[in-house]
Every structure is written in C-alpha cells, then in structure tokens.
Amino acid sequence: MASELTVGGINGTTVSTTGQVRVGANLHVVGTGNPSPSTGQGLEFAGGASPYVQSYDRTASTYLPFSISTSSQLGFHQTTNANVLIGSATAASGAKLEVTGAVTATTLSTFSAGIALGNTGTASAGTPSSPAQTLDWYEEGTWTVAMNGASSVTNTVGYYTRIGNLVQISYYSGSFTSTAVAATITGLPFDAGTYQVFTAAHNTWTPLSSSGYVNISSDTMKFTDTGATGTSTAVAAASRYLMVSGTYRI
Fold first, then answer.
1. Whole-structure pTM value
2. What tens digit of pLDDT does each residue of 87-102 get?
3. Are 187 and 193 in contact (CB under 8 A)?
4. Does a structural domain hold residue 29?
C-alpha cells in the first residue's frame, strides 16, 4: 500500500501518495559541483506570505542575474544593476524594462515620466540639433468660452486636445447677441507660449474677419480684419454666429 514519505520532520521533504513533493518553506537547487544547499550558486524557491524565486550565490552572499531562457531573443533576464530585460541579455545603464517585439496591454498603462520615442536625429538642414524625444502630455477636455460683449449665447463650451506642447481647440457658438466692442474670446484651456493663428467661419460676429491670433502669455483669442493687424470690432446685433478652430503652442 502506498504511503506518504516524510524526511526531516514538518519542515523537511515530503512525498505524498499522489507523487507531489513538498520541501519545507524553501527549496534551494544548487548548481553542478555544489551538492550542499548552504554553499555555491543555485536557484532558491522561497515560500511564506510573499513567495519568490531568486538566483543566489550562498558562498558569496550575493544575488545573481536570473534568466528563464538562454536565448537572448526570447529570454527574461534580471541583471545585477536591477534591470529587467526581455528579449535581450545585454544590460543597459539605469533600471528599465526593455522589450524586443510587440507589446499588448489589456489594461490602461501609466507612464508618469512620459514616453521616450528614441529619436536620435542629428543636426542637418532644417533639423534641430537637440530634438525633443519625450511625449510627456496627452489630454482631452472642454473649455468655457467667454465672448467679449456677447449675451444670450446658446453654447459656451469648446473642446480641446493637447499633445505635448500643442493644443488644438474648436468651438461653435450657436445663436447669440453681440455689442460693438473688441472681438475677443477668453478662457482657452492653457496660456499660449507664442503667437498663433486661428481661423473663423460661419462668422456673422465679425464679418470682415476670417482669422485672428492667440495672444502670447494669455488665454485670449483676438480677431483681426483681413489686411489689418488691430482687433476687429464686433457687429452690434442679435442672431450672430461663430465657428473657430486652431492650434497653438504653450
């Protein structure tokens, strides 16, 4: 009759009647030529509340790089400087995760420091000597449009998308009543870092203007008449309409 075999007591080695093997709280598999679990290099499986697997040199009391494959193309490798490499057995400086091949994420991923695109371009005609390589901002949202001198505005919500330091905005007013004042809009989601042009259409607020500019270091859009640089004057009337869109740098 088959029976359970236990060697070394409760924390020893047990072979069950079904062939399962339990080795105390920890199992240390030593390398060739090192038969003693207390010395030499080997692989240690530790149990307890936080189980783990580690590669360890008990003689030198130090942790070793750990791989699950000898192939540099398919392997998983933890180096002595805390890098975790997938698809490469070559350590790089700094702690990082390197992946060779496609990565599929089934849940939302967070990159608090941005995404380094790896652009290594050098200076040439029309190319900056130190191009930015990190995408550090993406955002979508709405902004509250404040039209100077306007009342009974059907819609005061605009939309924006920010990618890096560029912001794309759009807005449609619906019907509103205006007075003869400087044609400006405030409330952009971010202050502008430089002067930038926007375009206007379906525009009965400032009929002589089809564009304008975002004022530097502000959240203000100023409409300008065609062929002029000064701020347009709005038409004093009811049932006015306006569509605007543009992109500006912050």
1. 0.62
2. 555 555 555 666 667 7
3. no
4. yes
